[in-house]
Amino acid sequence: MIEPAEKLPLELEYLYKDDTPVEDISYQVIDSQGVAHEGKLCGGYARLEALPPGQCDITYLGVDEPDEKALTALRAEFNKQLAAMIAEVSQQAARENAIFEQAGLFEQWAIETSKQACLNNGQLRQAPS
pLDDT by residue (tens digit) across 88-103? Predict the structure, then answer.
């Protein structure tokens, strides 16, 4: 008579880099027989009982935390503000270049000489070319 394979527990733990537990994250475990087990971590931890021996595929389905949602919103706002700042600087540079191009040779020489003097005195930083 063949004895059925022993069933084994599986412990899941999901932590941030600072070792604090990720709260309320959903998971899915596919056991070695292809059966799906789903649930939510509590305090960054879950224990599944009586799984068949063999390899499991574990997927964490996303963080439900308000902090993660707030962080995503902050990233989007940061990117929006950064794009606006870059656009503003680009427009200002285009205006200044247009003014410079309209200036006569003597005025261009004076602008460049003033700029170089400011760079030498540390009042301006040279932009990378």
Answer: 999 998 988 888 787 7
